[in-house]
Design goal:
Elements lengths: L18 E3 L5 E3 H11 L19 E2 L16 H70 L20 H6 L6 E2 L4 H14 L3 H11 L3 H5 L1 E8 L8 E7 L2 E6 L3 E6 L4 E7 L6 E5 L3 E5 L4 E6 L4 E7 L4 E6 L5 E6 L3 E8 L2 E9 L7 E6 L5 E6 L3 E6 L4 E2 L3 E2 L19 E2 L11 E6 L5 E6 L4 E5 L4 E6 L11 E4 L5 E6 L2 E6 L5 E5 L5 E7 L2 E6 L4 E7 L1
Parallel strand pairs: 4-17, 22-23
Antiparallel strand pairs: 1-2, 1-3, 5-34, 6-7, 7-8, 8-9, 10-11, 11-12, 12-13, 14-15, 15-16, 16-17, 18-19, 19-20, 20-21, 20-23, 24-25, 25-26, 26-27, 28-29, 29-30, 30-31, 32-33, 33-34
Length: 544
């Protein structure tokens, strides 16, 4: 093939124009060939004898080989190569210096932004507290105004009211402007007694049904972690509390969130931003969740509305909070030795009653509500459990370990209401009670102590029936207790994991490991569910 254009004779290696080859094998510049085609009427200029037609799409374009620039003169010798590498290294070091300087400036800006954000959060928290206090004052003022008899001119003479028809306005006037001392308003007390009357006959059938589906001791011995769920943020690991009701569990995390999780569906059903670190939570059926922090802030959430329905400031540090079976009342134990009873109504929480002993030095550390709702047990720092009888509005009696048992007086139909004293040997709060749990059978009570001992009490006999882990041989500490639905087993956890004992046998039925000290325990059907102080995972223990 010629390296010159067969039309113009121009060299094809030096031209910058497009070079093509015709079907007849002739090489030329495309531009000149197309001009010839126009002149010849579309005939191949190289085949004049045959008059063969030629079109542009029949042409084949030749590609020129790419040419490489020769190496730079300064890179042709070793000294020049070393000088070039030194220059590039200096440029790289300078760029790294500039990058690090920019990083340091960015860090300073971020630190300042975080400081401003922290200051803003503190301002918002202070404003929220002032708002809550203003709301409380407004509620008290509304209650006092509602309690006053209306003027005759404000209601037409023709208006009539059905006494059997409840009205929100009339119910509001029945709430006392100040909480009653060691007493409960009659209407609220009647609601609690009616609930007790419905629950007590159902106790034995419920226990029988739960016992039929309860795991055997052999099954419990084979329990292991079968699932782990992570609900909370990674930034603030640790869960402070867990509670269960049916298929739902609720957790309180150090990330300032309250999560409601469905065990069967394995999904988060509800999510609430508490604003501060919640320390206690409770859940009632699928209707309400309550949470509180150590400072005394209490918030109630409706699961139907998926939002907060009321907020209350206890005024003292809160150590336990429970939803009453009426689903309208809340029981709160404070560190200052008080039991507060509140009513959830009209998108608010109203303080209606307060129970406390005459001893101002009493310090509560934990609490639990009896399954029937008329007895509240509060553990103390000195090792006592105060059993409050809501119906008869008294603290019934005291039982002291190591001394002759002092039986309670007959108080109405509740002769089993007693107060236990658990500090015969230990001093300075070494045997303080850290957790309390009622059995669903209604007459067994378990207490966990700071000394790591777990004591079981029979309220019918008014004495201890067993003491576990007195020498810390099973667990170094115990912080959580949970009876199963049948009352046959008790799970207790703390540092070194979880232990399960069979009631009346009192041996170690199962031993479950935990990486973090256990901060909460509940039963979910046959599953044992635990959370840790330093982990954000919720562990589900069951038969593998």
């Amino acid at each position: 093939m010629s390296l010159t254009c067969e039309i113009s004779g121009e060299s094809l290696t030096s031209t910058k124009e497009e070079v093509v080859v015709t079907p007849s094998g002739h090489t030329c510049i495309k531009r000149l060939l197309l001009a010839k085609l126009v002149e010849n009427g579309g005939m191949d200029p190289f085949e004049t004898m045959r008059e063969r037609p030629l079109s542009e799409d029949q042409l084949i374009t030749l590609q020129k080989a790419s040419s490489h620039a020769p190496p730079r003169v300064q890179a042709t010798s070793l000294p020049n190569l070393l000088q070039q590498m030194q220059s590039e290294y200096d440029a790289l070091v300078l760029e790294l210096f500039d990058t690090r300087k920019a990083l340091e400036d960015t860090r300073k800006e971020l630190s300042q932004a975080l400081y401003q954000n922290d200051a803003a959060v503190r301002v918002v928290a202070r404003l929220s507290m002032e708002r809550d206090a203003a709301r409380q004052e407004l509620e008290k003022w509304n209650a006092s105004v509602g309690a006053a008899p209306p003027a005759a001119t404000e209601e037409p003479a023709s208006t009539t009211t059905d006494p059997d028809e409840p009205s929100k306005k009339r119910r509001r006037t029945e709430i006392p402007t100040e909480p009653l001392k060691n007493s409960i308003p009659e209407e609220d007390l009647q609601a609690m007694v009616d609930t007790w009357g419905k629950l007590q006959p159902q106790r034995k059938p419920t226990l029988k049904t739960a016992a039929a589906s309860a795991p055997t001791p052999e099954d419990l011995a084979s329990y292991d972690v079968i699932d782990k769920q992570t609900f909370h943020k990674t930034t603030c690991k640790g869960l402070n509390s867990i509670a269960s009701s049916g298929d739902l569990i609720v957790t309180a995390g150090r990330d300032k969130q309250v999560m409601v999780y469905s065990i069967s569906e394995k999904v988060i059903k509800h999510f609430f931003q508490f604003g501060t670190i919640p320390t206690c939570v409770d859940i009632y059926d699928s209707s309400m969740v309550i949470a509180c922090n150590a400072g005394g802030r209490v918030v109630a959430y409706s699961l139907q509305e998926d939002s907060a329905i009321g907020e209350f400031q206890a005024g003292d540090p809160v150590v336990d909070i429970r939803i009453h079976p009426t689903s309208k009342h809340i029981c709160i134990a404070t560190k200052t030795g008080k039991i507060l009873v509140c009513l959830v109504e009209e998108k608010s929480i109203v303080h209606i009653a307060e129970f406390s002993s005459d001893d101002d030095t009493v310090e509560y550390t934990c609490g639990a509500l009896h399954p029937d709702g008329l007895i509240y047990a509060a553990g103390t720092k000195s090792g006592q459990v105060h059993m409050w009888d809501f119906k008869n509005k008294v603290l019934a009696s005291t039982l002291e370990v190591g001394a002759s048992n002092r039986r309670s007086e007959n108080v109405g139909d509740f002769r089993l209401l007693i107060v236990f004293l658990f500090s015969p040997c230990l001093q300075d709060g070494d045997d303080a009670i850290v957790a309390i749990a009622f059995s669903n059978n209604g007459y067994h009570l378990a207490t966990a102590h700071k000394s790591a001992a777990v004591r079981f009490w029979d309220l019918r006999k008014q004495k201890t029936i067993a003491t576990l882990n007195p020498d810390k041989s099973l667990l170094a500490s115990v912080t959580s207790l949970a009876y199963d639905a049948s009352g046959k087993y008790l799970a207790y956890g703390g540092k070194d994991g979880v232990q399960v004992t069979t009631v009346k046998d009192w041996g170690s039925t199962a031993s479950l490991d935990s990486k973090s000290p256990v901060s909460g325990l509940v039963w979910g059907g046959t599953l044992i569910i635990s959370c840790g102080e330093k982990e954000r995972d919720v562990s589900f223990h069951g038969k593998a």
